[in-house]
Design brief:
single chain; Rossmann fold; Argininosuccinate synthetase, chain A, domain 2
Length: 427
């Protein structure tokens, strides 16, 4: 292998990235700088830093990315709307571009020869990390040990660390493979690898209680929005990080936002995961309800199409692409009128709509009621239906003619002199 002087590693403090530190030093004879982005995950960063140094890193850098994560990434996906494949609220997908950007910036500032990550060759994150790095450091080499080394299992990783005298950051019987941040926690592996198995929520969930264990009394929560962005909870203005954290607590105790799904990965295979996104689920539902009130039919319909493509772009790691930038611009233009308050009732895993108000509401009670008002007459519907239904009528007449005379009969022709013909007026 070509020797490197300095490699910047995306470091989480877990088993995979802890093994990578001594492996990089052994195989590249290099200095390793460990970089960890704080996107709101439950983590002891002081302990993570000590672990990185104990495993052989020359330096540990923590990046505080929580506020940027919410304001620049989470609010963008909230405004766009649609989850990936109808269910996944893109918690990991939204964090990876920001982490990759931070990794690239540190590498450039440190004069590194390469960056490295601990993503496997089967996962989505390798794509997301490497596309993000290419966007900011296009000439930077990316090293992915999982695509190079001979280590094939967690047991072998543990054995490698023990052979090098490095403390193991997990127990051999440790549980699911997890990724967490301010927005969500994901769970993969073990019994979830068989889609026939029911997940054991009691021993799995971290942010939420199982719905059947939630309180027997419902709780109401009101979310305030300004131009599509959530700004308040129950009338109290909150900064972005605190707002998400607050709704995580409220939603978690009611079992809100638990998703068990089989999804299509970027690399082509299907995988199963359980996601907990309590606060995000509340925000997304409230935002959808407000859009129903404030956006006209055609804008809402087209935005739903855009939202689906946006979700795919974010999932596939193309956050920094021109298409993503263009779609975000369209979405932002639709959000100018998405201002107001939405109230939801939380009860045992369910979100029940309990009202919405907005100064930009397009709902007009006088039009929606069954009584005739000055803006609408029931008689107006006759002409509208005749015109709106004209294509249906024309198609039905064609079908009748084909049944009687066959497709070769051609359309009816009204000839001059026959019944129903009116000569054109002269000039």
């Amino acid at each position: 292998m070509i020797m490197k002087k300095k490699i910047v590693l995306a470091y989480s403090g877990g088993l995979d990235t802890t093994v990578i530190v001594p492996w990089l030093k052994e195989h590249y004879d290099c200095e390793v700088i460990a970089v960890c982005g704080d996107v709101g995950q439950e983590a002891d960063f002081e302990a993570i830093g000590k672990r990185a140094l104990a495993s052989g890193a020359s330096k540990f850098i923590k990046l505080d990315q929580k506020e940027a994560f919410v304001k620049e990434y989470l609010w963008a996906l909230v405004k766009a709307g649609t989850p990936y494949e109808k269910k996944y609220l893109l918690g990991t997908s939204a964090a990876r571009p920001l982490l990759a950007k931070g990794l690239a910036e540190v590498a450039l500032a440190e004069g590194a020869d390469a960056v490295a990550h601990g993503c496997t060759g089967k996962g989505n994150d390798q794509v997301r990390f490497e596309l993000g790095v290419k966007a900011f450091a296009p000439e930077m080499e990316v090293i992915a040990p999982w695509r190079i080394w001979d280590i094939q299992s967690r047991e072998e990783e543990i054995a490698y660390l023990e052979a090098h005298g490095i403390p193991v950051p997990m127990k051999k019987e440790d549980s699911y493979s997890r990724d967490d941040n301010l927005w969500h926690i994901s769970h993969e592996g073990l019994d979830l690898e068989d889609p026939a198995n029911e997940p054991h929520f009691e021993g799995m969930l971290k942010m939420c209680v199982p719905p059947e264990k939630a309180p027997d009394k419902p709780e109401y929560v009101t979310i305030g929005f300004e131009k599509g962005v959530p700004v308040s909870v129950n009338g109290q203005k909150l900064d972005p990080v605190t707002l998400v954290h607050t709704l995580n607590k409220i939603g978690g105790k009611h079992g809100i936002g638990i998703v068990d799904m089989v999804e299509n990965r970027v690399v082509g295979m299907k995988s199963r995961g359980v996601y907990e996104t309590p606060g995000g689920t509340i925000i997304m539902e409230a935002h959808d309800r407000l859009e129903m009130l404030c956006l006209d039919k055609k804008t809402l319909s087209f935005k739903m199409t855009v939202a689906q493509r946006f979700a795919e772009i974010l999932y596939e790691g193309e956050w920094f692409s021109p298409l993503c930038k263009a779609l975000c611009a369209f979405v932002d233009s639709t959000q100018e009128v998405v201002t107001g308050q939405v109230t939801l009732k939380l009860y045992k895993g369910n979100l029940i709509f309990a009202g919405a108000v907005s100064p930009y509401s397009l709902y007009d009670a006088s039009l929606a009621s069954f009584t005739t008002g000055p803006l609408f007459s029931h008689k107006d519907s006759t002409g509208f239906i005749n015109l709106f239904g004209l294509p249906t009528k024309v198609r039905a007449r064609l079908n009748e003619r084909i049944k009687k005379h066959g497709a070769a009969a051609g359309p009816d022709v009204v000839k001059p002199g026959s019944s129903g013909y009116t000569a054109p007026a002269g000039d």
